[in-house]
Specification:
The chain is of the alpha+beta class and 440 residues long. The protein has five helices and 27 strands. A five-stranded mixed β-sheet has the order 2-9-8-4-5, with helices on one face. A five-stranded mixed β-sheet has the order 11-19-20-23-22, with no helix packed on it. Strands 1-3-7-6 form a four-stranded antiparallel β-sheet, with no helix packed on it. It is elongated and about 170 Å long. The N and C termini lie far apart (181 Å).
């Protein structure tokens, strides 16, 4: 017995045949197939990743393509069983069974939070077992969206700073700026706190009077939320806009003896409190009546000609508008070529902002333009006549230009004295009948 036992321990009994060891290549293929089965690649289990907003419901689905009535179970990231078939071992009431069959196990998770993120495993008890995982990603919208303005009330021409902050979001938000319907460009900074991101965007904005009352909008682009925005209305102070209008006469010429009534309107922020009329480069006539924002001249005469200015001021600054008055004779019937008012800006800045000022212009210029045309025509005719005369005189003098020779003193060269020369000259009285001239 002892010897039989020793032979068994030492090796196989003589004549007992054992299977040969598998080749190394076959062993590698078997291991690779087992690895594929474990990872679930190319197997019957199917699932999808889930993206959900914090606080919403996530649905996990484990499906079998070709069911053979094998058991399906779902595990959490800690490898704890959530559902085994239609039984829930995990004591978490947020997990609820939505559907169970031989081909699907569908489970919902309510009130999802950041702690629920991770991989959830679907297992199928086949031989060998199959496993595949799905990933839950939780999106967190911004907790708060706030616009902070450096100056609540700005003055036209100033550059103000606005900051918009989107707090505690996941992933980081993208902030966009709008002024009315126009998109602007800001500068953003991102801070990370644990798994959350806080984004602050800065906008530098130069404001004008046209920006008063316009909304500045901070809008958030984030996959967890749509149309999240906040806005602030700009408040801009600006100096007055002044406009002069002619009440009477409504149209036509301002003639001697007739009345003239002007009114002045000013708009600004704050509303102008000081308005006054003055005459530019001269004193205001004594018969002119100023009542508030109105100016009245009951009986026009030519001494009233000039520029009348309406000035208005507020806490921001002062502006004015000019009216140019030209008084015509009572017999004047020609209507001015230009009616109404033209703009006289107080400065380049007012011209940019459209601070229009009214003035009576064009009437005197229209009449003077007619006089200048007549004078110019007369001058042109005179110059043309003088040129023609100069040409005629030039041709006349050129035709009669030459040297004349006579024979009146011929024969006087050999005379001894002056008396003899006179007597012997061919041009004397005795030879006057033979006198000849030659034109060369």
């Amino acid at each position: 017995m002892a010897g039989r036992a020793q032979r068994s321990a030492a090796g196989p009994a003589p004549g007992l045949l054992l299977p040969p060891p598998p080749p190394p290549l076959l062993l590698l293929l078997l291991l690779a197939a087992a690895a594929l089965i474990r990872t679930g690649d190319g197997q019957n289990l199917v699932t999808e990743d889930v993206t959900v907003v914090e606080g919403d419901v996530a649905t996990i689905s484990c499906r079998v393509k070709n069911s053979d009535d094998s058991v399906i179970q779902l595990l959490n990231p800690n490898r704890q069983t959530i559902y085994f078939r239609d039984f829930r071992p995990l004591k978490d009431s947020r997990f609820q069974l939505v559907n169970f069959s031989n081909s699907e196990l569908r489970v919902s998770l309510t009130n999802v939070s950041i702690s629920d993120e991770g991989r959830y495993f679907c297992q199928l008890y086949t031989d060998p077992p199959q496993e595949i995982y799905t990933t839950i990603t939780v999106l967190v919208p911004p907790r708060n969206l706030v616009i902070d303005i450096q100056k609540e009330i700005a003055v036209e021409g100033e550059e103000i700073e606005l900051n918009c902050t989107a707090m505690a979001s996941r992933p980081a938000t993208t902030i966009r700026w709008f002024k009315g319907n126009k998109e602007l460009t800001g500068k953003s900074e991102v801070e990370q706190w644990s798994d959350m991101y806080t984004v602050t965007s800065q906008l530098l904005l130069k404001v004008g009077r046209e920006d008063d009352g316009v909304p500045v909008i901070c809008l958030v682009d984030h996959p967890a939320v749509k149309d999240l925005q906040t806005q602030r209305y700009l408040e801009v102070m600006y100096k007055p806009q002044v406009r002069v209008s002619q009440n009477y006469p409504v149209q036509g010429l301002t003639r001697e003896g007739e009345p003239l009534e002007l009114s002045c309107a000013a708009f600004g922020k704050p509303q102008p409190t000081d308005m006054r009329w003055l005459r530019v480069d001269d004193e205001m006539p004594q018969h002119v009546v100023v009542s508030g924002s109105n100016l009245l001249i009951s009986n026009l005469n030519k001494t009233d000609n000039g520029t009348y200015r309406c000035e208005a001021s507020n806490a921001v600054g002062k502006s004015h508008a000019d009216y140019m008055l030209f008084v015509y004779d009572t017999t004047a019937t020609t209507e001015p070529a230009v009616h109404g008012f033209t703009h006289l800006p107080n400065s380049a800045e007012e011209l940019d902002y459209g601070d229009l000022s009214d003035s009576r212009a064009g009437e005197e210029g229209a009449i003077r333009s007619v006089d200048h045309a007549v004078v110019g025509g007369v001058v042109a005719v005179v110059v043309f006549a003088m040129l023609c005369l100069l040409i005629i005189l030039g041709r006349y003098f050129a035709r009669h230009k030459g040297t004349y020779f006579t024979h009146e003193a011929k024969g006087a060269d050999d005379a001894a004295d002056a008396d003899t020369a006179i007597i012997n000259a061919e041009g004397g009285q005795n030879n006057s009948e033979e006198k000849k001239e030659y034109f060369i």
